[in-house]
């Protein structure tokens, strides 16, 4: 399995886990309170994460354009997450996952763009 496949599946399954966590995890609920975000924003985040996850998974098997759209959306979502982390003055270590997932999905978006254009 090549690195693009590994990163696509890693991101997809990660966001599947995080998306469901937005709905069912008491720890995640407390984190969103700490972020200063309300229940609707937590649920919207969860829905967007699940949509991105499913889009990556289906796109991986059926349509690279869906991977491009999903990875771009997840990249933007993680940039917003990083912005929230900076706004509440989280440490670099606390902010690192948002940055790492943003970079992974930017990498995926660039590569899926190349696949579609070539």
Automatic annotation (TrEMBL):
Its main location: membrane. It is a multi-pass membrane protein. Keywords: Membrane, Transmembrane, Transmembrane helix. Pfam families: DoxX_2. The chain crosses the membrane at residues 6-24, 68-86, 98-117. InterPro entries: DoxX. This is DoxX family protein.
């Amino acid at each position: 399995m090549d690195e693009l496949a590994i990163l696509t599946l890693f991101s997809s399954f990660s966001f599947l886990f995080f998306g469901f966590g937005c709905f069912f995890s008491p720890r995640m609920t407390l984190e969103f309170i700490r972020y200063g975000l309300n229940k609707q924003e937590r649920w919207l985040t969860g829905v967007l994460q699940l949509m991105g996850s499913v889009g990556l998974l289906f796109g991986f098997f059926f349509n690279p354009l869906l991977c491009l759209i999903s990875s771009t959306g997840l990249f933007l979502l993680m940039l917003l997450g990083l912005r929230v982390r900076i706004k509440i003055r989280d440490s670099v270590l606390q902010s690192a996952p948002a940055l790492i997932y943003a970079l992974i999905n930017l990498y995926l978006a660039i590569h899926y763009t190349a696949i579609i254009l070539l």
